[in-house]
Amino acid sequence: MLDRWLFKQIDNSPLIVFRVIFGLLIFLESVGAIFTGWVRRTLIDPQFTFNFIGFEFLQPLPGNGMYFYFALMGVCGLLVMVGYRYRLSLSVFTLLWTSVYLMQKASYNNHYYLLILICLIMLVLPANRYLSFDVKRNPSLKSITMSRWCSWLIILQIWIVYTYASIAKLYPDWLNFSVAENLMQARSHYPIVGDLLQQHWVHVAITYTGILFDLLIVPLLLWKPTRKWVFGIAIFFHLFNSVVFQIGIFPYLSLGFCLFFFDPETIRRLFLRKKEPYLEEEVKVPAHKGKMLFVACVYFVIQILLPLRHHAIPGDVLWTEEGHRLSWRMMLRGKSGYIRFRVVDKVTGERFRVRLDDYLSDKQRRIIATKPDVIWQFAQRLKDEYAEKGRDVAVYAESGKVVVNSRDAQQLIDPEIDLAAEKWHFFRHEKWILPFKKDVE
Fold it and tell me: Each residue of 410-441: pLDDT tens digit?
């Protein structure tokens, strides 16, 4: 029964159309990063980047090298779109995009991580079997069908994303509308809609729509009676997010995912009218079925468990940030703060003040006060810099105060701990992060 359900052949039109859209979007993401100045601000202007810890070997190319890097990613996107050497093109893009993701945290976004996962999924899908240059080069590749599991691989992935995004919003600061209010205050300067976004009813609507949309969108798209109505809501929801939050290609990628919920024949009639219809009832069980199912189970177990890891770490993830990344905790809080560093020569006792402006870009200064891992990395960098001058130093985060969701400012880092002497622990709480006030209470 499972074999018949997973490996039943269906029209591959949703996958083919999605490949074209996906290739176009990753092309636009790549060249857009160049022309909007993202590459310059994030990877060229800074003296250094804050890598994901453990990936310090990934560094931006010198000079204007990162412009060529992103231009190459754009070319790969176009090749994916037209289906030319599809897997090679997508493999190169995936490697380059993942490297950029890991080499900097100043522009962290959950959607960047999702793009890595979708790239990996698309690599195993037969998305170049129709309407592609690969088929023109090798007609034996042509196929008008795919196994049903190809659609469900995408559906399950986004179901996990949306479900965790909804669950994460079930906490007091979101439910009392303060998060939505803070998010909209930062957009009060928008022309036409800026004043409207400050209305309380808008904050209420955003709060509950965010929870309900993320929780119900996939089930309601799967249910045929509600599918068209919910798709209309999805169009408004994602276009609103695109205009108000300016989060790149993600809203349009999300609309592209909807292709997999509609009847494949409908997609064929709408987008590929010259494509012959598939009228048979065929099941093709691959010889390597067992390995496929094993890999898929391992992958989805990781996807389900990884966003839960913060529950195994003491403290509030909103405060400590431990377990925040890779967990679909999207637009849940606003954090701001300030921090000073004090360097002390262990031998002479001489003290040095650190001017952050001498080291950090504007983007980096905006995150360093609120991200403990970035604070630790900067302390290590100061330690190494002074070591090159022959000094053995201690580094303290002095008077670091942080505000979360307009609460009272609290001290984030223990000012008596020498951060330069601390090791980073990937799987447990860093004790030099002071408790959140409500934790103390």
Answer: 999 999 999 999 999 988 899 999 998 765 44
Q: Could you read off the pLDDT of 199-237 as tens digits, one per residue? A: 999 999 999 999 999 999 999 999 999 999 999 999 999
Q: How would you write the chain as a 3-class SS string?
A: CHHHHHCEEEECHHHHHHHHHHHHHHHHHHHHHHHCCHHHHHHHCCCCCCCCCCCCCCCCCCCCHHHHHHHHHHHHHHHHHHCCCHHHHHHHHHHHHHHHHHHCCCCCCHHHHHHHHHHHHHHHCCCCCCCCHHHHHCHHHCCCEEECHHHHHHHHHHHHHHHHHHHHCCCHHHHCCHHHHHHHHCCCCCCCCCCHHHCHHHHHHHHHHHHHHHHHHHHHHHCHHHHHHHHHHHHHHHHHHHHHHCCCCHHHHHHHHHHHHCCHHHHHHHHCCCCCCCCCCCECCCCCHHHHHHHHHHHHHHHHHHHHHHHHCCCCHHHHCCCCCCCCCCCCCCEEEEEEEEEEECCCCCEEECCHHHCCCHHHHHHHCCCHHHHHHHHHHHHHHHHHCCCCEEEEEEEEEEEECCCCCEECECCCCCHHHCCCCCCCCCCCECCCHHHHC
